[in-house]
TrEMBL record:
Main location: membrane
Homology family: Belongs to the CDIP1/LITAF family.
Record flagged with keyword Zinc: yes
Identification of the protein by name: LITAF domain-containing protein
Organism, as annotated: Chilo suppressalis (Asiatic rice borer moth)
KW Phosphoprotein (keyword) present: no
Length: 115
């Protein structure tokens, strides 16, 4: 009777284990993105010029800023126009615009402060 028993009763289990390991292995890979520099820079950006270390030229600089009108600026303009016919208000007010920061040394784009 013993001869009829399978020599490797766990054979099916082994292949299942290997399949499971293949499923797990992609998750085992470290997904560490070297984005610490970018995160640091973003934290320092504000609505006004800010002193920061440029990640491109490593210089301590005061950022140059440019205000950019966004879709929301035009939406606000339309809204003001409908309410009180003062459609120019959002374009005079920087609070409705995003602030782009640039490095004055290497002219690289550093980030955007969004309202
Ligand atoms: Zn720079």
């Amino acid at each position: 009777m013993d001869d009829t028993l399978p020599l490797y009763p766990g054979h099916g289990t082994d292949s299942a284990t290997i399949q499971k390991m293949n499923d797990v292995s992609p998750e085992m890979k470290p997904a560490s993105a070297p984005s610490s520099l970018l995160t640091q820079t973003t934290l320092l950006l504000g609505p006004e010029n800010g002193v920061t270390t440029c990640p491109f030229c490593q210089a301590l600089v005061r950022t140059e800023i440019k205000h950019t009108t966004t879709t929301r600026t035009h939406t606000l303009s339309l809204l003001y126009c409908l309410i009180c016919c003062c459609c120019c208000i959002p374009f005079c007010c920087d609070s409705a615009k995003n602030t782009d920061h640039y490095c004055p040394s290497c002219k690289k784009y550093l980030g955007t402060y969004e309202k």
